[in-house]
Amino acid sequence: MTLRPDAAQPGTPVILGVPFDANSSWLRGAAGAPPIIRVALNSISSNLWTETAVDLGSRGAFCDAGDLKFTFDEPFAAIENKIGELLDRNLRPVCLGGDHSITLPIVRAFGQRIPGLTIFHFDAHPDLYDELEGNRLSHACPFARIMEEGAAKRLIQIGIRTMTGHQREQAQKFGVEVIEMRQLPALDRMKVDGPVYISFDMDALDPAFAPGISHREPGGMSVREAIAHLHAITGRIAGADIVEFNPAQDTTQITATVAAKLLKEILGKMILN
Ligand code: MN
Ligand code: MN
User: For ligand 1, a single-atom ion, which residues have Cβ within 5 Å?
Assistant: First the structure.
Protein backbone atom coordinates (compact mmCIF):
# COMPACT_ATOMS: atom_id res chain seq x y z
CA MET A 1 0.00 0.00 0.00
CA THR A 2 1.35 3.42 -0.93
CA LEU A 3 2.14 5.81 1.88
CA ARG A 4 -0.03 8.88 2.44
CA PRO A 5 1.71 12.29 2.47
CA ASP A 6 0.96 12.92 6.17
CA ALA A 7 2.97 9.81 7.10
CA ALA A 8 6.02 10.73 4.98
CA GLN A 9 9.48 11.84 6.09
CA PRO A 10 10.73 15.30 4.96
CA GLY A 11 12.15 15.22 1.44
CA THR A 12 10.00 12.29 0.32
CA PRO A 13 8.80 12.46 -3.32
CA VAL A 14 5.00 12.77 -3.49
CA ILE A 15 2.95 11.90 -6.57
CA LEU A 16 0.05 14.21 -7.42
CA GLY A 17 -2.28 13.63 -10.36
CA VAL A 18 -3.38 16.82 -12.12
CA PRO A 19 -6.28 15.78 -14.39
CA PHE A 20 -6.51 18.97 -16.45
CA ASP A 21 -6.38 19.39 -20.24
CA ALA A 22 -8.51 22.47 -20.94
CA ASN A 23 -5.51 24.39 -22.33
CA SER A 24 -4.76 21.83 -25.05
CA SER A 25 -4.77 23.43 -28.49
CA TRP A 26 -5.48 20.26 -30.48
CA LEU A 27 -6.75 17.05 -28.80
CA ARG A 28 -8.22 16.56 -25.34
CA GLY A 29 -7.54 13.40 -23.34
CA ALA A 30 -4.44 14.09 -21.21
CA ALA A 31 -6.68 14.69 -18.18
CA GLY A 32 -7.32 10.94 -18.13
CA ALA A 33 -3.64 10.04 -17.71
CA PRO A 34 -2.88 10.01 -13.95
CA PRO A 35 -4.79 6.87 -12.87
CA ILE A 36 -3.56 4.97 -15.94
CA ILE A 37 0.09 5.81 -15.16
CA ARG A 38 -0.46 4.58 -11.59
CA VAL A 39 -1.84 1.26 -12.87
CA ALA A 40 1.19 0.84 -15.15
CA LEU A 41 3.58 1.73 -12.30
CA ASN A 42 2.09 -0.94 -10.04
CA SER A 43 1.65 -3.59 -12.74
CA ILE A 44 3.11 -6.94 -11.78
CA SER A 45 4.45 -7.23 -15.33
CA SER A 46 7.52 -5.49 -13.90
CA ASN A 47 8.84 -4.55 -10.45
CA LEU A 48 9.48 -1.37 -8.47
CA TRP A 49 13.30 -1.40 -8.61
CA THR A 50 14.88 1.38 -10.67
CA GLU A 51 17.83 0.84 -12.98
CA THR A 52 19.87 2.84 -10.45
CA ALA A 53 19.18 0.19 -7.76
CA VAL A 54 16.53 2.08 -5.76
CA ASP A 55 13.66 -0.05 -4.43
CA LEU A 56 10.55 2.12 -4.81
CA GLY A 57 8.57 -0.67 -3.16
CA SER A 58 10.33 -0.15 0.17
CA ARG A 59 8.14 1.49 2.78
CA GLY A 60 8.30 5.29 2.67
CA ALA A 61 10.30 5.51 -0.59
CA PHE A 62 7.61 7.78 -2.02
CA CYS A 63 4.04 8.76 -1.20
CA ASP A 64 0.89 9.54 -3.17
CA ALA A 65 -1.41 12.53 -2.66
CA GLY A 66 -3.98 11.17 -5.13
CA ASP A 67 -5.51 13.31 -7.88
CA LEU A 68 -6.17 17.01 -7.43
CA LYS A 69 -9.89 17.74 -7.23
CA PHE A 70 -10.97 20.92 -8.98
CA THR A 71 -13.83 22.49 -7.04
CA PHE A 72 -14.59 26.21 -6.70
CA ASP A 73 -11.13 27.63 -7.22
CA GLU A 74 -9.80 28.83 -10.52
CA PRO A 75 -7.86 25.75 -11.79
CA PHE A 76 -4.39 27.35 -11.85
CA ALA A 77 -4.89 28.73 -8.33
CA ALA A 78 -5.97 25.27 -7.16
CA ILE A 79 -2.82 23.70 -8.64
CA GLU A 80 -0.48 26.38 -7.26
CA ASN A 81 -2.06 26.16 -3.78
CA LYS A 82 -1.82 22.38 -3.64
CA ILE A 83 1.83 22.36 -4.73
CA GLY A 84 2.60 25.09 -2.19
CA GLU A 85 0.98 23.00 0.53
CA LEU A 86 3.09 19.95 -0.37
CA LEU A 87 6.31 22.00 -0.58
CA ASP A 88 5.55 23.61 2.79
CA ARG A 89 5.40 20.10 4.23
CA ASN A 90 8.92 19.53 2.87
CA LEU A 91 7.76 17.01 0.29
CA ARG A 92 8.97 16.87 -3.31
CA PRO A 93 6.00 16.94 -5.73
CA VAL A 94 5.98 14.83 -8.88
CA CYS A 95 2.90 15.76 -10.90
CA LEU A 96 1.23 13.54 -13.46
CA GLY A 97 -0.55 15.67 -16.08
CA GLY A 98 -2.56 16.79 -17.68
CA ASP A 99 -1.55 19.06 -20.51
CA HIS A 100 1.67 21.07 -20.30
CA SER A 101 -0.06 24.27 -19.19
CA ILE A 102 -0.08 22.89 -15.61
CA THR A 103 3.68 23.42 -15.35
CA LEU A 104 3.13 27.19 -15.01
CA PRO A 105 1.18 27.11 -11.70
CA ILE A 106 3.38 24.27 -10.43
CA VAL A 107 6.61 26.18 -11.07
CA ARG A 108 5.06 29.37 -9.65
CA ALA A 109 4.73 27.56 -6.31
CA PHE A 110 8.32 26.29 -6.56
CA GLY A 111 9.69 29.70 -7.54
CA GLN A 112 8.22 31.37 -4.46
CA ARG A 113 9.95 28.88 -2.17
CA ILE A 114 13.05 27.63 -3.95
CA PRO A 115 15.32 30.32 -5.43
CA GLY A 116 17.79 29.54 -8.20
CA LEU A 117 15.79 26.73 -9.79
CA THR A 118 17.09 25.10 -13.00
CA ILE A 119 14.39 23.52 -15.15
CA PHE A 120 15.19 20.62 -17.45
CA HIS A 121 12.40 20.68 -20.01
CA PHE A 122 12.14 17.58 -22.23
CA ASP A 123 9.85 18.25 -25.21
CA ALA A 124 9.52 18.17 -28.99
CA HIS A 125 8.18 21.72 -28.65
CA PRO A 126 9.72 24.77 -26.96
CA ASP A 127 6.30 25.89 -25.55
CA LEU A 128 7.51 29.49 -25.69
CA TYR A 129 4.70 31.09 -27.70
CA ASP A 130 3.63 34.47 -26.37
CA GLU A 131 0.08 33.31 -27.09
CA LEU A 132 -1.63 30.63 -29.17
CA GLU A 133 -5.07 31.26 -30.66
CA GLY A 134 -5.51 34.09 -28.18
CA ASN A 135 -4.74 31.89 -25.14
CA ARG A 136 -1.70 33.04 -23.14
CA LEU A 137 -2.17 30.05 -20.80
CA SER A 138 -2.13 27.52 -23.67
CA HIS A 139 -0.01 24.38 -23.31
CA ALA A 140 2.14 26.01 -26.01
CA CYS A 141 3.02 28.97 -23.72
CA PRO A 142 3.99 27.91 -20.15
CA PHE A 143 7.73 28.51 -20.46
CA ALA A 144 7.22 32.05 -21.82
CA ARG A 145 5.20 32.88 -18.68
CA ILE A 146 7.67 31.14 -16.34
CA MET A 147 10.61 33.11 -17.74
CA GLU A 148 8.69 36.42 -17.78
CA GLU A 149 7.81 35.94 -14.13
CA GLY A 150 11.36 34.92 -13.17
CA ALA A 151 10.04 31.75 -11.50
CA ALA A 152 13.20 29.85 -12.53
CA LYS A 153 16.84 30.88 -12.93
CA ARG A 154 17.72 28.64 -15.86
CA LEU A 155 15.64 26.87 -18.47
CA ILE A 156 17.37 24.05 -20.36
CA GLN A 157 15.26 22.52 -23.11
CA ILE A 158 16.12 19.17 -24.63
CA GLY A 159 14.70 17.26 -27.60
CA ILE A 160 13.33 20.32 -29.39
CA ARG A 161 12.49 19.81 -33.08
CA THR A 162 9.64 22.23 -33.92
CA MET A 163 11.24 25.66 -33.48
CA THR A 164 9.49 28.55 -35.23
CA GLY A 165 11.03 31.94 -35.92
CA HIS A 166 8.91 33.53 -33.18
CA GLN A 167 9.95 30.93 -30.62
CA ARG A 168 13.64 31.31 -31.55
CA GLU A 169 13.25 35.01 -30.76
CA GLN A 170 11.51 34.17 -27.49
CA ALA A 171 14.27 31.70 -26.53
CA GLN A 172 16.89 34.38 -27.19
CA LYS A 173 14.93 37.03 -25.27
CA PHE A 174 14.62 34.82 -22.19
CA GLY A 175 18.12 33.31 -22.37
CA VAL A 176 16.75 29.78 -22.79
CA GLU A 177 19.42 27.12 -23.32
CA VAL A 178 18.00 25.05 -26.16
CA ILE A 179 19.42 21.60 -26.94
CA GLU A 180 17.78 20.62 -30.18
CA MET A 181 17.04 16.99 -30.95
CA ARG A 182 19.62 16.98 -33.76
CA GLN A 183 22.33 17.90 -31.20
CA LEU A 184 21.84 14.79 -29.05
CA PRO A 185 23.50 13.16 -27.18
CA ALA A 186 24.16 16.01 -24.73
CA LEU A 187 24.86 14.18 -21.49
CA ASP A 188 27.48 16.72 -20.33
CA ARG A 189 24.91 19.51 -20.50
CA MET A 190 22.79 17.77 -17.86
CA LYS A 191 25.35 18.70 -15.18
CA VAL A 192 24.20 21.68 -13.11
CA ASP A 193 24.48 22.97 -9.56
CA GLY A 194 21.60 23.88 -7.30
CA PRO A 195 17.97 22.78 -7.21
CA VAL A 196 16.50 21.13 -10.30
CA TYR A 197 12.97 20.73 -11.64
CA ILE A 198 12.27 18.23 -14.43
CA SER A 199 9.35 18.81 -16.79
CA PHE A 200 8.92 15.83 -19.11
CA ASP A 201 6.51 16.21 -22.04
CA MET A 202 5.92 12.70 -23.40
CA ASP A 203 6.15 13.97 -26.98
CA ALA A 204 9.90 14.48 -26.47
CA LEU A 205 9.99 10.76 -27.26
CA ASP A 206 9.64 9.53 -30.80
CA PRO A 207 5.98 8.65 -31.46
CA ALA A 208 7.19 5.16 -32.44
CA PHE A 209 8.02 4.62 -28.75
CA ALA A 210 5.19 6.67 -27.26
CA PRO A 211 2.27 7.18 -29.65
CA GLY A 212 -0.18 8.07 -26.89
CA ILE A 213 0.24 11.83 -27.15
CA SER A 214 -1.71 14.65 -28.78
CA HIS A 215 1.02 16.07 -31.05
CA ARG A 216 3.02 13.31 -32.75
CA GLU A 217 6.35 14.74 -33.91
CA PRO A 218 8.65 12.21 -35.60
CA GLY A 219 12.40 12.19 -35.10
CA GLY A 220 12.36 12.14 -31.32
CA MET A 221 14.19 10.38 -28.50
CA SER A 222 14.24 6.70 -27.90
CA VAL A 223 13.23 5.66 -24.39
CA ARG A 224 16.89 4.78 -23.79
CA GLU A 225 18.09 8.25 -24.85
CA ALA A 226 15.56 9.87 -22.51
CA ILE A 227 16.60 7.70 -19.57
CA ALA A 228 20.29 8.30 -20.27
CA HIS A 229 19.75 12.07 -20.14
CA LEU A 230 17.59 11.82 -16.99
CA HIS A 231 20.26 9.70 -15.31
CA ALA A 232 22.94 12.27 -16.26
CA ILE A 233 21.21 15.11 -14.35
CA THR A 234 23.16 16.33 -11.34
CA GLY A 235 21.92 18.62 -8.56
CA ARG A 236 19.11 18.00 -6.10
CA ILE A 237 15.81 17.31 -7.84
CA ALA A 238 13.17 19.36 -6.02
CA GLY A 239 10.26 18.20 -8.15
CA ALA A 240 9.10 17.00 -11.54
CA ASP A 241 6.17 16.54 -13.85
CA ILE A 242 5.27 14.09 -16.61
CA VAL A 243 2.73 15.65 -18.95
CA GLU A 244 0.89 15.28 -22.27
CA PHE A 245 0.35 11.50 -22.10
CA ASN A 246 -3.00 11.11 -23.87
CA PRO A 247 -4.56 7.67 -23.16
CA ALA A 248 -7.15 8.19 -25.92
CA GLN A 249 -4.29 7.97 -28.46
CA ASP A 250 -2.60 5.00 -26.78
CA THR A 251 -4.14 2.02 -28.55
CA THR A 252 -1.62 -0.56 -27.30
CA GLN A 253 -1.07 0.93 -23.80
CA ILE A 254 2.67 1.14 -24.52
CA THR A 255 2.80 4.86 -23.73
CA ALA A 256 1.36 4.22 -20.26
CA THR A 257 4.17 1.72 -19.65
CA VAL A 258 6.77 4.19 -20.91
CA ALA A 259 5.38 6.98 -18.70
CA ALA A 260 5.53 4.67 -15.68
CA LYS A 261 9.11 3.70 -16.55
CA LEU A 262 10.17 7.36 -16.73
CA LEU A 263 8.32 8.04 -13.46
CA LYS A 264 10.26 5.22 -11.80
CA GLU A 265 13.63 6.47 -13.00
CA ILE A 266 12.82 10.08 -11.99
CA LEU A 267 11.72 8.96 -8.51
CA GLY A 268 14.88 6.88 -8.21
CA LYS A 269 17.07 9.86 -9.14
CA MET A 270 15.24 12.04 -6.63
CA ILE A 271 15.88 9.55 -3.86
CA LEU A 272 19.57 9.15 -4.81
CA ASN A 273 20.44 12.86 -5.34
MN1 MN B 1 5.07 20.66 -23.98
MN1 MN C 1 5.29 18.85 -26.71
Answer: 100, 123, 127, 201
Whether 85 and 93 have beta carbons less than 8 Å apart is answered as: no
pTM: 0.97
CB 123 within 8 A of CB 213: no
CA distance 142 to 191: 24
Report CA(126)–ligand 1 centroid distance (Å): 7
Among all bound ligands, the one having the nearest atom to the CA of 101 is: 1
pLDDT in tens, 114-173: 999 999 999 999 999 999 999 999 999 999 999 999 999 999 999 999 999 999 999 999
The bound ligand whose nearest atom lies closest to the alpha carbon of 139 is: 1
